[in-house]
Specification:
It is a single chain. This protein has a domain of about 160 residues: 3-Layer(aba) Sandwich (Protein Transport Mog1p, Chain A), CATH 3.40.1000. It has about 300 residues and is α+β, with helices and mostly antiparallel strands. The strands form two sheets. It has a seven-stranded antiparallel beta sheet, with helices on both faces. A two-stranded antiparallel sheet has the order 4-5. Helix 5 packs antiparallel against helix 6. It has seven helices and nine strands; from the N terminus they run H-H-H-E-H-H-E-E-H-E-E-E-E-E-E-H.
């Protein structure tokens, strides 16, 4: 470094020894110098006047054009990437692709809240209450669906909700539901071109404790309350709860083989003061596909968060 060597005196350079005048050197010096012909006279190039520009350089101009194009394309690409990564999860279309069996849901967004009301899982809402209109929290039907006129996204009776359960269990579930005192029940249903039928119910209770009491009463751990179309069910081993919101519990079941004319899949989402029941079924030996069922659970999960 400069500070460390500034105070050290420089050593004097060693003098190079003078060349010896040996025989070889003497012979070279004795030879006469060869005659070199003078170069022909070249006329001087005329100087350009100061006001005249230099001739264009095509290579430099081409490089400049390609560099500018690359910068423009790079800027567009960076802007697109920023736009996608900066989008909120509720602004992203509902996994809109059909290559792997997923349905084309419309663009999702969380509903507006009353003035001064917090989201269900914010720090200012420890009770996890959904202040938004329950009907606005229902997942919309995907493209190509035929909507159910009875379950059109509005309010339904508790009797309509209870009709999903088996007759042998319905009276007990009815009593448990009455003890839990639900406030509202909203529902939406549709049928896809391949015959897959979907029904979604949102049941809102007066507290989170009552929601948990109800789901615990009808779901006995590894078994679920039998549905009218699925007397025997088992855990859906393919469901991993992907895309779920922190604080929301999810349970997925499928009708065990051998099932009847249609296989039934259903799942529960426990989101604070609200319980969601999603039921899907399709006739045929192939059964109800798992991909759109899981997709529907994921998106309904996000809307409740």
């Amino acid at each position: 470094m400069t500070e460390q060597t500034a105070g050290v005196p420089a050593e004097p350079a060693e003098a190079l020894p003078a060349p010896r005048a040996d025989a070889s050197t003497a012979c070279v010096e004795a030879l006469p110098a060869p005659e070199v012909p003078e170069p022909p006279a070249v006329p001087p190039m005329p100087l350009l006047p100061p006001s005249q520009p230099r001739p264009p350089r095509r290579v430099l101009r081409a490089v400049a054009r390609w560099t500018a194009a690359a910068l423009v394309l790079g800027g567009v690409g960076a802007g697109t990437a920023f736009g996608i990564t900066s989008m909120e999860r509720t602004d992203v279309p509902g996994l809109a692709t059909e290559r792997d069996g997923r349905w084309d849901y419309p663009e999702l967004s969380l509903p507006a809240l009353p003035a001064g009301s917090p989201r269900p899982y914010s720090d200012s809402n420890p009770s996890e209450v959904h202040h938004a209109d329950l009907r606005a929290l229902l997942l919309p039907a995907p493209a190509g669906a035929t909507e159910d006129k009875k379950l059109d996204g509005g309010w339904v009776s508790t009797e309509q909700y209870l009709s999903e359960y088996g007759k042998d269990e319905r009276s007990e579930i009815t009593q448990t539901l009455e003890e839990s005192a639900p406030r509202h029940v909203a529902a939406r249903g549709w049928t896809m071109p391949d015959g897959t039928s979907t029904r979604i119910y949102l049941v809102q209770f007066n507290s989170t404790a009552l929601t948990r009491y109800f789901i615990t009463s009808i779901n006995g751990g590894t078994t679920a309350a039998p549905l009218v179309e699925a007397p025997e069910t088992e855990f859906d081993e393919g469901w991993e709860g992907a895309g779920k919101v922190d604080g929301i519990s999810s349970f997925a079941y499928r009708e065990a083989k051998p099932y009847g004319e249609a296989q039934v899949r259903h799942g529960y989402l426990v989101a604070g003061d609200t319980l969601a029941l999603v039921v899907q079924s399709r006739r045929g030996k192939e059964g109800t596909p798992a991909v759109p069922f899981h997709q529907t659970l994921i998106l309904q999960n996000q809307l409740l968060g």
